[in-house]
Amino acid sequence: MPKDHSKSGTYTAPPITGHLPLATQLRHIICGPETGFLMEAHNALSARIAENAGFKALWASSLTISASMGLRDANELTWTQSLDLISGMIDAVGIPILMDADSGYGDFNIFSRFVRKAGERGVAGVCIEDKLFPKINSFAKTEQHLASVNDFCAKIRAAKDNQIHPDFMLVARTEALVVGADLEETLVRAEAYYEAGADAILVHSKSNTAHEILAFADKWSNKAPIVVVPTTYADTPTDTLTNAGVSTLIWANHSLRAAIRSMEDITARIFKQQSLNGIDADVTSIEDVFSLTDMSELIAATKRYQGHS
Amino acid sequence: MPKDHSKSGTYTAPPITGHLPLATQLRHIICGPETGFLMEAHNALSARIAENAGFKALWASSLTISASMGLRDANELTWTQSLDLISGMIDAVGIPILMDADSGYGDFNIFSRFVRKAGERGVAGVCIEDKLFPKINSFAKTEQHLASVNDFCAKIRAAKDNQIHPDFMLVARTEALVVGADLEETLVRAEAYYEAGADAILVHSKSNTAHEILAFADKWSNKAPIVVVPTTYADTPTDTLTNAGVSTLIWANHSLRAAIRSMEDITARIFKQQSLNGIDADVTSIEDVFSLTDMSELIAATKRYQGHS
Amino acid sequence: MPKDHSKSGTYTAPPITGHLPLATQLRHIICGPETGFLMEAHNALSARIAENAGFKALWASSLTISASMGLRDANELTWTQSLDLISGMIDAVGIPILMDADSGYGDFNIFSRFVRKAGERGVAGVCIEDKLFPKINSFAKTEQHLASVNDFCAKIRAAKDNQIHPDFMLVARTEALVVGADLEETLVRAEAYYEAGADAILVHSKSNTAHEILAFADKWSNKAPIVVVPTTYADTPTDTLTNAGVSTLIWANHSLRAAIRSMEDITARIFKQQSLNGIDADVTSIEDVFSLTDMSELIAATKRYQGHS
Amino acid sequence: MPKDHSKSGTYTAPPITGHLPLATQLRHIICGPETGFLMEAHNALSARIAENAGFKALWASSLTISASMGLRDANELTWTQSLDLISGMIDAVGIPILMDADSGYGDFNIFSRFVRKAGERGVAGVCIEDKLFPKINSFAKTEQHLASVNDFCAKIRAAKDNQIHPDFMLVARTEALVVGADLEETLVRAEAYYEAGADAILVHSKSNTAHEILAFADKWSNKAPIVVVPTTYADTPTDTLTNAGVSTLIWANHSLRAAIRSMEDITARIFKQQSLNGIDADVTSIEDVFSLTDMSELIAATKRYQGHS
Asked: In angstroms, what separates the C-alpha of B114 from chain D's closest C-alpha?
């Protein structure tokens, strides 16, 4: 599934290794010649599971992090709460995380402060969308309001001036298609965001087919990589998207959605039968829980440092 | 599955209703005539799923909360971090939560402070175990160390003096059997904890059968309800435990273990096929995610307060 | 310095006692017949110092809390950070705190969530100002932007619907005079906020005299108490304000400003002399630090609970 | 006030500049030939005031941070709370901070985790004392309990293995003299801590004279720099200490103690006079508050990024 080199401009990616800084790793994944795949994670555990599965980068989703905290995807968590949660995800894995930063938590100044603190905590890149604050999830059945291009570009410029690592990725996400704007406005916005300093453009669509994405890709100037989130157009073959010039795909919420299904099933079973009869066969073992959190490392370290377990 | 009234002493439970304070609800469940069942929750989402399934109370497990944060069950989260996470669980449900408070986070003074802040945040009760700080999970293959009876009773007395609500539940958990002490020491400790003010006794065992629990129940003075965690002796019929005098059972980690299994499966599938082909059928829908977080309430409130969506 | 009863409407205040809920105490202070005085506090220590001095209520100022954290008064702290800090202030005193909630941290939904969490933590009342988010301090030499009356009233209505305690105080602050609007708009806004449910109106002015405040008070309908912040018109005698109908005065930032002056002096002296020679005479003693934090209570509790110190 | 070169071993310090990493700056100050002076700070504001006064490094004191939060110096704040507060101090200044890490917050594992997170947040070094957890302030009139040498050295070794920056400073503080142990035990402990990896030794004394410190310095092997805290022996000339071989002095709590004195004075005055009459002359101005928090930078940035103020 080769990425069309002409689409990613003049960027020549060096080989990816685990020893590169996280921001650099993420830059290679999104801007390099190979198609990038980012798996959703909503906590440190799901992050580690995705890393174990082979993924090279993660998407820290506001929808799924909010939902795991029982909250709507509408900035009900503050950015400091989100960053604390994502810091735990970063500690748990060795691969970079692209953080969903919603509409930037306020104005350019708050977003700048956030970008500095995110870099300090090891966030490799952030995605910011061109809606007002507070945002609401793009799939919610309610009105959505776009930010002005001037206000949004102020955030992009300020963020790039405040990034700690030179390879920190600023992905600008346009919700133009989501709010019903046309292709032309979408392109104008994407171009403006690129000129303001965005490292990649995420075009979001809630269509059941990829036609909006393909139309955008066809007209896009190719100055910056295209990132997409095929949640509603999940049936579109990945080749169709990458052949059109898409650089990176985000599987945006599926780990949490898998977890919900199974938690509902097991919980209902246990409630009804008032016992654990037969449950162990359908859930992972305690030993696996220990393995996912490196319990053996703690036991070994206790012997090493304390001289006894 | 009637609870043996003689086992729960002179307590006469009024009918349980959603309008009672959370601490009172929890007291009725653990001390009342019906067998209590507490389902594990590790975040607000799993808490709501358990409430939706019909559970009347929850167990906020240190093992599963730590694991979801990528950490060992060894006090790697501070108590303020744990309480912040559990506050979100409390916001998400209308049923009481018994919080796993490990070995109490330090001395009587720290535990007192914790108990005040936990009550403020709506925690209905806490469980404290008689190990040193930091504790390590009872199933970890390493040495476990019991606290002195004096130090542990100091925490119990101080906690009861500092509870905000008169029905706040202090469940004292003895790890005597886990560290290899005999039944006699277990009984001596349980009796001391009760005398210090504990509202219930949790006897923990990592045996593959319930024989330790049944032996304890046979000798127990019945002054306080018995709570058990049948993780390793999951095959024991619930009736066997309740007929022996057990008041309340905790299904301690199964929601997270279900989630892990399914996240591993779905994540591996998506990684291998590099697409979402066929995934939607095996995960819950976005609409269900919205439903679990009351997105429709937000949309309705927007109309009500703003006059438009 | 009696408060003009006719100005505070039909409210009849019961006597204030320490056993009343904090929200009720604050309501009595702002709505009752006596003039209310709220002293600024920026952390738990300054809160306790103000309580020790005799104040019956506190003002948790965004300017001074932000400044103590090294930040601009422009929502650089998130509301969860602010609430955590103020929770510590509440723990330290027995008097109610009116929390400066800036422009409400976002829309009605975020403000509602904040009001619920603030009530849970013991905040007795909040003050919200009619500016956009993020706000900037009223004395900053930059443009200020008012929120629409509709958006602001949405927040007021939602807040009142979400308050936990029936006496929780919602003080609506209009910045109309600060941004250069005229008296008429100020009155229209104040009236709208009152109709939406505000319990008191704070009229802010950055004039060096009280003429704007006095003009407002002269025309105000007297349906709700008037609160003022005489930072720039500090020379105005208190009687002039209360005789005009002002109910409550906030000394908004003077504790921090005193602290800065003395910290600058002592720090410069120590730096220059490279010793502590003569310093003890000009600073409070370690014993006083212990006294302000009840160290003796900890020592006594250690003996009581542990049986030894 | 030259530092005795022979006391600081073979270390040759390069010139100190603002462009060095913070950990390196702190290493130069403590291990270099010049006497180091660390000024207490308890929040970002006092940190900036100390930097403005000319100090090259700061002491983030548990006593004063706890007291400013209304808490006893007895680990009532969790380490995550302390680190969040100190992160704000780091953001506010360009000089390194030595963080008072009490007795290490638990065992070697918790301390290791803390050291990693502290490094991530920009802490330049930490000081850990050889008492049990929770610790209590050395000046509190109660029993103090020393940790075993084995447990304490486990923490030191683990910390050095987990530091992020190679110049991160681990200052080992012995409380042997404070608990009444003799000089010999103090020396044995200091030597063991140095062998375990400590970068400097802090010898604490609560004597009213420096005789304990001078006796220690006379016998010390000089392998690691000596740090002292002359709070109780404040009258001792600095030369007396440095000539004996002391490398670094910490002015440990005087900024807060200055602030308390002035806040008590001003608050009492305002309470009594029920007005701000004459207060402005004795406190710093609002403009100074703005200056200390770089308000002008925000106004300039608004013009630069937004195109208008």
From this structure: 9
Mutate to test the interface with D, among A148, A152, A305 (most CBs of D within 10 A): A305
The pair of structure tokens assigned to D150 is: 């084995």
**ipTM associated with this complex:** 0.94
- Select from C158, C162, C151 the least CA-distant residue to C119: C162
Amino acid at C142: T
Ramachandran assignment for B57, one of left (phi > 0), alpha (psi -120 to 50 degrees), beta (any other): beta
Catalytic residues of D, by residue number, are 73
DSSP state of B122: T
All residues at 6 or more sequence positions from D204 whose CB lies less than 8 Å from its CB, including other chains: D129, D138, D173, D174, D175, D177, D178, D228, D229
User: C62-112 pLDDT, tens per residue?
Assistant: 999 999 999 999 999 999 999 999 999 999 999 999 999 999 999 999 999
Given the structure tokens 């870099």, which residue do they identify? A119
Domain count, chain A: 2
Q: Rounded to an integer, what distance in angstroms lies between the CA atom of residue A38 and that of residue A59?
A: 6
Residue-wise pLDDT for D152-195, tens only, equals 999 999 999 999 999 999 999 999 999 999 999 999 999 999 99
Q: Do B229 and B285 sit in the same domain of this protein? A: no
B99 lies in the same domain as B38:
yes
Q: Count the alpha carbons within 13 Å of A30 in the hemisphere toward its beta carbon.
A: 34
Cβ-based contacts under 8 A for chains A and C? 35
Same structural domain for residues D105 and D234?
Answer: yes
Examine the residue annotation and report whether B235 is marked as an active-site residue of this protein: no
Q: Does the distance separating the beta carbons of C305 and B154 come in below 8 Å?
A: yes
User: Please, what sign has the CA dihedral across residues D265, D268, D272, D275?
Assistant: positive
Structure tokens at D167: 């110049």
Check whether residue D158 and residue D237 sit in a common domain.
yes
pLDDT tens for B84-100 read 999 999 999 999 999 99
How far is D101 from D126, CA to CA, in rounded Å? 6
**Contacting partners of chain D (3+ CB pairs under 8 A):** A, B, C
Residues A173 and A189: beta-carbon distance below 8 Å: no
Note whether A185 and A288 are same-domain residues: no
> What amino acid is encoded at B141 in this protein?
K
pLDDT at C308: 67
Asked if B301 and C122 come within 8 Å (Cβ–Cβ), the reply is: no
- Give mean pLDDT, residues B205-222: 95
CB atoms within 10 A of CB A232: 17
How far is C-alpha C281 from the chain's CA centre? 33
Let me know how long chain C is: 309
Residue ranges making up the domain that contains A209: 22-254
Instruction: Report yes or no on A4 lying in a domain.
Output: no
Has residue B11 been placed in a domain?
Answer: no
Return the sign of the alpha-carbon dihedral for residues A299, A303, A305, A306: positive
Residue found by looking up tokens 């299994």 in the block: B261
Instruction: Give every CB contact of residue D12 below 8 A, 6+ residues apart in sequence.
Output: none
A touches which chains (3+ CB pairs under 8 A)? B, C, D
Q: Which residues pair with B118 in a beta bridge?
A: none
Distance CA A205, CA A233 (A): 9
- D119-162 tens-digit pLDDT: 999 999 999 999 999 999 999 999 889 999 999 999 999 999 99
Q: Which amino acid is at B262?
A: S
Put simply, the answer to whether D53 touches C268 (Cβ < 8 Å) is: yes
Residue at which a domain ends, from A228, A254, A280: A254
pLDDT digits (tens, 9 = 90+) for D206-260: 999 999 999 999 999 888 999 999 999 999 999 999 999 999 999 999 999 999 9
Q: Which chain C residue's Cα is nearest to A76?
A: C110
Q: How is residue A154 written in tokens?
A: 């102020």
